[in-house]
Amino acid sequence: MPCIYTSPAGLCPGIASLSKKEHYLPRGFGNFKHDDRLASKICNDCQVRFSKLEDLLLHNSPEAFFREMVGQVGRKKHRKKNIFYDPTQGISPLTVIGKHPDEDVEILWEPIGEGQCRPLNQIILAGTDGTLRIPYRPGALTIDKIEQQLEKENVGKLQHALFVSSEPAITAELDALCKALVPAGSDKDLPLPKEGVEMQGEMKAPVSAGYLRAIAKIGFHFLLQYLPRFTGFEAEFDGIKRFIYSGEADKERVMPIRDQFVVNLRRGTLKEWAHLLTAQADEHGIEARMQFFAGPPVQPLIWRVDLGANPSRLIYREAVGQAFIYYRTRKGDYHGERSEMLGVGPR
Length: 347
Known about the structure:
Oligomer: single chain
Number of strands: 15
Structural class: alpha+beta
Distance between the termini: 33 Å
């Protein structure tokens, strides 16, 4: 049996061997006990291709923010990436903007655990038409690069240059940059906030085309794992496969929805962090729904993925739901466990 992405024509060339354990739910979301793998459906080349989409999902998305809040996911051997400093595939890092508790200026922050945060090392440039906040990265901040960003963001004529720093060497570098950018001397080293101060912030995350393709891939592969009567070669799936593989979209395939799709959660919240995934087929077609990092303090976006029309001549409703629930503390190699989810609501 070839890779399912060999059809329709023009996608996967079908020369690589099939993967024996494809993670339909990205491994970067955690290792869950009783979690099955999608076997002999996707070739190794496609798996590598889709890992680039997952990179955006894991490091430059709303879900990436919640990964930091949960704080226990990912692989120990993988290099830890700071998603609030480092860009992903050329896309600017996530930003959390909140007012400095002692100054009348908004700065960049990063979460360091559930309900806690600290300011980034950064430079804040205020112009006549806007403000630019740039996180500090060694070797990444030069006058030329900063001026290019100022022009790109249409900040206008630069009036003030401020910075926040937690290390003496960084302080000296940022101070020199500020004085070079604003020779008149309107620069300032903002003090580090005191611990225990309450603040409100706003998280901003881009929703890129690659991110939406990653969401679609999870929904489609989840369907193949838990509704095995579908082979993945049905012609009705050609559209979703083109979108996942190359970004070609014949219609809107991934969209946010408001209504909670788990009946038991429509009037309540989860006690632990969890990922909720469903797939269903009926007379309206085939779709997947998912909510990542649902938990006690928040209810993140719910995504609906339009997978295609139902190829069955005899239409009947078929639905499956799985919950991937985190342990409060990691148990050996496992961050949590998978369990069947009941009470999947109608579309």
